[in-house]
Amino acid sequence: MVFSFYFQLFRGYDTPSLRAIPFYHYPIRLMTNIMGTSKLRILLSLFLSLASSGSPLKYAKPKLSDYGYFKGRMADHNPVAGVIPYNVSAQLFSDYALKSRFIVLPQGQQLDYQKDGTFDFPQESVLIKTFYYPADFRSPAQNTRLMETRLLIYTPEGWMGFPYVWNTAQTEAHLEIAGERLDVSFIDPLGQTINFEYSVPNFNQCKGCHVNQNRMIPIGLKVRLLNHDFDYGDGTMNQLKKWSALGMVKGLPEIVTLPHTPDYDNPHDGSAAERARAWIDINCAYCHRLGAPGETSGLFLNIEETDPTRLGVHKPPVAAGRGAGNLNHTIVPGSPEAS
Fold first, then answer.
1. Spans of the chain, pLDDT less than 50
2. Which of 151, 197, 279, 331 is least buried, going by the fewest C-beta atoms within 10 A?
3. Phi, psi of 151, deg, nearest 5
4. Which of 76, 124, 67, 83 is nearest to 246 (CA)?
């Protein structure tokens, strides 16, 4: 564990000889000069956390290529057999980034469909998500830059998230438990140049969104978010049908009986109200639901919620004054200025 931490602490900051020497042999000032105060604090905080709870780094590999998920040029994301691409109908907004997603199940294992529309995963399941930007969003498939790949791994200790940051050459992504900040520049769909700092979360920050009932869980792997067609390159097929055909899932009812969350960007996929609920669900409900950090607000935004008050209609806020915008209700139907 200690060696793994040292490797992460110094990888990319100085020469190999420096990385090989334990950090406590170096003055704090030197470490600060090497990494900067912010990253030093994060790393030391992570070190204390990992030292007290055992090292989850034993479940992660130093480089993305070490897993063998892709063949050929890594940045092309050409998956090997058993690494299955997928997408979700309603996308989480992530600083304008586009995403590629894959699922890996241990050989011979299956997802077990649950009546609430989720899946029970076998241990060693892995969810892969790469965040990237095209140089010009008007040509989104051309001249792309991969920023990070996040692995959500189902370990014997539960789900754990590991961030891998891509190098400038786009040949490899390295584990960065402390996260990273990267400058981004692209042209948006309207032709405007956008510049900002992209933030890769550290190891502990994954829990901020993925914790429910005090345990880490996947967010997007729900039946209703997968129940749509996907282009697999050799043909288009409903994702759930594809997974059933591949023997990836058991206990799945007839597809026509299963719910579908609309694509909120597609005006032909559901009503305006349904698409609004889809946007709020994927962008807000991971926090604003029972068992999640936003539970104390009393505002529940998951798509299954039907109680108007819990959805915010004429609901008094729990914050006062400026914390609630000096307003009396979360939503006043027909009065956006009072909501």
1. 1-32, 34
2. 197
3. -110, 125
4. 83
Distance CA 278, CA 283 (A): 9
How far CA 286 is from CA of 73, 100, 214, 265, in Å, comes to 34, 20, 13, 20
Hey, CA dihedral for 205, 208, 213, 217, is it positive or negative?
A: negative
Q: What is the Cα–Cα distance from 302 to 242, expressed in whole angstroms? A: 27
What pLDDT, on the 0 to 100 scale, is given for residue 314?
A: 94
Task: Specify the pTM.
Answer: 0.83
Please give the pLDDT value at position 19. Answer: 39
Listed in sequence order, the residues at least 6 apart from 58 whose beta carbon sits closer than 8 Å to its beta carbon are 1, 4
Predicted pLDDT of residue 25: 42
Q: Where exactly are the structural domains of the chain? A: 2-54, 64-257, 272-338
pLDDT at 12: 42
Predicted pLDDT of residue 324:
78
Torsion of Cα atoms, 92 then 94 then 96 then 102, to 10°:
-70
What is d(CA 97, CA 147) in angstroms, rounded to the nearest whole number?
9
- CA 315 → CA 276, 305, 329, 330, distances in Å? 19, 14, 5, 6
